[in-house]
Amino acid sequence: MAEQRRTEEALQKTRTELARVVRITTIGELTASIAHEVNQPLAAVVANADACVAWLALQSPNLMEARAAAERTIQGATRASEVITRIRSLINKTAPEKVQVQLNDVIEETIALADRQASKNNIPVVTEFAQNLPVVLGDRIQLQQVILNLMLNGIESMSSINHRLRRLLVRSQIHEDNQVCVSVEDSGIGVSAENMPRLFEPFFTTRSQGIGMGLAISRSIIEAHGGRLWVESVVGQGSVFQFALPRGDGSAS
Amino acid sequence: MREPDPIVFVIDDDALIRDGIQSLIRSIGLRAETFASARDFMLAKRPDAPACLILDVRMPGLSGLDLQRQLSDAKIDIPIIFITGHGDIPMTVRAMKDGAMEFLTKPVRGQDLLDAVQKAIAHHRKHRNERAELAETRKRFDSLTPRETEVLNLVVAGLLNKQIADELGMSELTVKTHRAHVMEKTTADSLAHLFRMTEQLRSSLRK
Fold first, then answer.
1. B143 and B71 in contact (C-beta within 8 Å)?
2. A243 in contact with B, Cβ within 8 Å
3. What is the per-residue DSSP string for A234-246?
4. Distance spanning both ends of chain B, measured CA to CA
5. How far is A66 from chain B (nearest CA, A)?
6. Is the pLDDT at A242 greater than 90, yes or no?
7. Residues with Cβ < 8 Å from A178, sequence gap 6 or more?
8. pLDDT at A245 > cutoff 90
């Protein structure tokens, strides 16, 4: 009997691992395809805007040509924004699953996923779990993606820090009795006042790699769950990204 | 004879990009012709002019790299400017090995593209001129009689008139006459010039 249980446990573990691998691959593929889909209209925008400027810069500017190029620029930009709308609706469409989720467990799982990235950068991950954290209603995988994204961003923001403590703190809390809150706190470079307003915009990124969709997608996931995602940051000290979701155990009010 | 106007061929399956690039090129006074696929380009009649080709590496159907290969098989030597998306490094390497002129990453800045176009056309023009010159030289050498060609071969092999006369069993005076004809027909203005032209023809035959 004991052996059969062990086998089942092992099988379950394999299934979970497999699910993780599939999930990560899918995120990677999604990112690559988004990059291509958006880069194409952007290339059209750049080519046509360049042409427009070139026609205007002539000794006797050719307004007809400039106008035609400007119109194609608009078409390209419209196409790019349609791609983004498609991505948004894709995310919203895949949000039907609403099950009871214990976020403490999700955090634990996510830390395991981010572990390689953290140890590669020599960054300790510390947790502070609220006891008796109420469950939330939502899509476990999507919430995991949000936490993973926040963690990877935090790790990235500390990769260039050498002169002071590097640490990632993931914390769960109960807010005002009816909100479950998860925060990811890093001691990285922080977000400049200049970048702050654009942080959650699609395709905004300060990194040379990455397409700047992580926070935009994360925020739309959290909002689709009836919650909110925000950031507090001090340049040179670090950032706290956190989200709050309504508790899902029925004892809300 | 006046050289025909240069022309830029643009192949991209995305109409907006195609039109944008074409417009940009026309804005600096160059001719540009667009094609939606590599196949269309291969089927089209191409004017005989200094040219270059702007090509997206990734296209449905016949890909940019396939086209590059077909052109090289067909001995069409139009320089190619490749435009690549993200992460096409293995493709880039392959195309470079096959003699691509330039690689630009999408989205391409207008000035970078125009610079590459000018460079590629200049390259092609130079190549065409060299080829035309060579054809001209070949025509002149082909007009030599068999006897004159024999004399020529011995001259460039470094033999003196007397040695050539012995070799071919003729008088030194006859050798001198043939030699004068060779110089005249090939328009060589010196022995060094004759050597140089002969070497050019021989190395073009070896290729």
1. no
2. no
3. ETTTEEEEEEEEE
4. 28
5. 9
6. yes
7. A246, A247, A252, A253
8. yes
> Terminus-to-terminus CA distance in chain A, angstroms?
46
* CA–CA–CA angle A157, A158, A162 (5° rounding): 145
B110:A47 CB<8 A? yes
> What residue type is assigned to position B63 of the chain?
S
The amino acid that residue B121 corresponds to is I
Q: Are A134 and A249 in contact (CB under 8 A)?
A: yes
Please report which confidence band the pLDDT of residue B113 belongs to, taking 50, 70 and 90 as the band edges.
very high
Cβ neighbours for B13, distance < 8 A, ≥ 6 positions apart: B36, B37, B56, B59, B60, B61
CA torsion, ordered A155, A159, A162, A168, to nearest 10 deg: 0
Q: Is B37 on the interface with A (CB under 8 A)?
A: no
To 5 degrees, how large is the angle CA B56–CA B43–CA A47? 30
pLDDT tens-digit profile of A165-217?
Answer: 899 999 999 988 789 999 999 999 898 888 888 888 766 777 665 666 778 77
Of A95, A122, A114, A88, which Cα lies nearest the Cα of A20? A114
Interchain CB contact of A53 with B (< 8 Å): yes
CA dist., res. B149 & res. B73, Å (int): 33
Whether the CB-CB separation of A136 and A103 falls below 8 Å is answered with yes
Q: What is the pLDDT of residues B141-185, one digit of tens each?
A: 999 999 999 999 999 998 999 999 998 999 999 999 999 999 999
Q: CA B100, CA B92: separation in Å to the nearest integer?
A: 9
Q: How many CB atoms lie within 10 A of CB A29?
A: 10
Using the beta-carbon criterion (under 8 Å), do B108 and A46 form an inter-chain contact? yes
User: Which of A35, A55, A79 faces B27 most closely, judged by CB atoms?
Assistant: A55
What's the pTM value of the predicted model, to 2 decimals? 0.56
| ipTM for this model | 0.73
Q: Residue B170: left if φ>0, alpha if ψ -120 to 50, beta else—which one?
A: beta
Distance from CA of A71 to the nearest CA of B (A): 10
B175 neighbors B161 (Cβ within 8 angstroms): yes
- A32 touching chain B per CB within 8 A: yes
Chain B hits for A51, Cβ within 8 Å: 20-21, 23-24, 27, 110
A242, two tokens: 């956190």
- Prior bond to B146 cis, omega within 30? no
